[in-house]
Write the structure tokens for this entry.
Amino acid sequence: MARLLVVDDDRDINESLQEALRMAGYQVTGVLTGADALAEVRRHCPDLVLLDQMLPDIDGSEVCRALRASPDTRRVPIMFLTARSGESERVRGLALGADDYVTKPFGMAELVARIRAVLRRAHEDFSPVEVMRVGDVVLDRGGHIVTINDRRVELTPTEFEILATLMGAPGQVFSRASLLEHLRGTMFENVERTVDVHIRNLRTKLEDNPADPQYIVTVFGVGYRFNNTDY
């Protein structure tokens, strides 16, 4: 049973979410502030955090940044739940390392489907011997580990899955839509911008010069491919 942490300062929304998610089969804990969220994660690290962006003490973005900065929590999936529906806010949330961004109001059926998709990416039981090596980049699905020249690179579950898709067929061009299909049904609200943000995050972590990438290459008007030439 996956453990979820609901972080929302609206007590009624928080309790309603907890009840609905328990009925969907999850173990759920709810907190009302960012400080309580960080303390709860330290006590009992959840399988996924549902995080409101507008909290009374610590902004949800800062909570997300703190979780991504810690070695113990940087791989915990994070889904923003927020009334901030603008594209710039959505892009900013994903750029912070969130795995999905759900705007209020939302339907519970859709939310549960998106939770399942994110958890599937994060916790799918891959074979520990399934290792991909392209050039000096090594991706170990079993250990959820990526290294470049023996330097470990920490990725979110969504970033890891996109990189695995690209590395699985080096040289092949993937459209944004096909990359989303490989993310197993996640329902993003703005396809092109979502993929672009995750690619930009990957380049920041993988590339010495993200502005002139040598690993993940843009094929203008088509999509992205993983460079299969010698570096």
